[in-house]
Amino acid sequence: MDLQFNRHRRLRQTENMRSLVRETDLHVNDFIYPIFVAEGKDIKKEIKSMPGVFNLSLDHLAEEMDEVVSLGIKSVLLFGIPLEKDDCGTQAYHDHGIVQEATRFIKEKYPEIIVVADTCLCEYTDHGHCGLIENGEVLNDASLELLVQTAVSQAKAGADIIAPSNMMDGFTVAIRAGLDEAGFSHVPVMSYAVKYASAFYGPFRDAADSTPQFGDRKAYQMDPANRLEALREAESDLMEGADFLIVKPGLPYLDIVRDVKNNINLPLVIYNVSGEYSMVKAAAQNGWIDEERIVLEMLTGMKRAGCDLIITYHAKDAARWLQEQK
Ligand code: PBG
C-alpha cells in the first residue's frame, strides 16, 4: 500500500519533544485571585457553593495573603461584603469602606502585590442592582457619578488597578476622567467591557449577598446570544481609555475571547466565574473528574483562546499544581 499522509505523531513522542512544540504555557503570573473581604471581626466563612473560598474579615486577611504570596501569585481582586447596605450603595465609595480598608492593609503589608479593586455597587445596595434605581429602572448617568466616587476612593486607598464591573454605558470614560482629575492618571482601568447576563454568577451572588431583589440584570448586562455586540462593547472601551479588557464569564465564551483578541490590541483578561468553579468542585467532590487535570486543561484552553490573564478562584490550587510539576 502506498498511502500518503503526514506523521503528526513525530512531534508527540516524548514529554521533551511535546514541550518543544507546545504553543500555550500556563504560568502563575497569569492568575488574578479574587478575595471576598467582609466587614466585621473574626469572620472566616466558607461559601457553601464555592468550597475553598471564604468571606474573610480583615483580621483573617493576612493568613490568606501569606498563602497567596507563598504560592507566587502577584495579584488579587477585591470584593467587599459591607455590614450595612442602602439604596445608593454608600459603603462602596466610603473612604473607610471594606475594600478601601482591605486595600490599605494589603498595600502596607504586601506592597508588591497588585491590588485590583472591583468597582460596582451591587454588593452595597439593598436592592442588589449595580446602579441607582428610579421607578424600577437602573439609572445610567446618575450611577456613573457614584461609580467614579467609588473608583477614586479605591485609588486613594492605594488600589493599583480599578476594575469596573457595573455595565453602565460610559463607565470607562467617566472613571478615567474622574481618576485623572483626582490625581490618579497613573492608575489603570481594567474594564469588564464584555460582561454577559449569566446564570454562572449564581454562587458569587450567594457569596456577596448581591442577588437583585427585583428583576434581573438583562437591561445592562449582555445577552449571551450575541457576538458582534461584544466587539462593539470592546471598541467603546478601547476608545474610552481602558487599559485592559475583561470577557466574562469564561468557559462558555471562549469564542468571544478569540474575537476580542483578534480585534483589539489591549491586554485581555478572562473571568473564570463562580459558577464555573462550583461545577468543577462539585464534580471533583463526587470523584467524577480529576480536578487537577480538568482545571489545568480549562485554564490552558482559556489562554489558547487568546486571553493574557485569568481571574480565577482556582488560582491557589493551580499555582500549587504548577509548582509541583516543575
Ligand atoms: C459585580 C460582579 C459580579 C461578579 C463579579 N463582579 C456579579 C454580578 O454581576 O452579578 C461575578 C463574579 C463571579 O460569578 O465569579 N457586578
UniProtKB/TrEMBL annotation:
InterPro entries for this protein: ALAD, ALAD_AS, Aldolase_TIM
Name the catalytic site residues.
K195, K248
Output the GO biological process annotations, alphabetical, semicolon-separated: protoporphyrinogen IX biosynthetic process
Q: What cofactor is this protein dependent on?
A: Zn(2+)
Enzyme class, first EC level, given as a word: lyase
| GO molecular function terms listed in the Swiss-Prot or TrEMBL record | porphobilinogen synthase activity; zinc ion binding
Which residues bind Zn(2+) per the record? Answer: C120, C122, C130
What positions does the entry give for 5-aminolevulinate 2 binding? S274, Y313
In short, the EC number is: 4.2.1.24
User: Which family does the UniProt entry place this protein in?
Assistant: Belongs to the ALAD family.
Role according to the record: Catalyzes an early step in the biosynthesis of tetrapyrroles. Binds two molecules of 5-aminolevulinate per subunit, each at a distinct site, and catalyzes their condensation to form porphobilinogen.
What's the protein here called?
Delta-aminolevulinic acid dehydratase
Organism whose genome encodes this protein:
Cytobacillus horneckiae
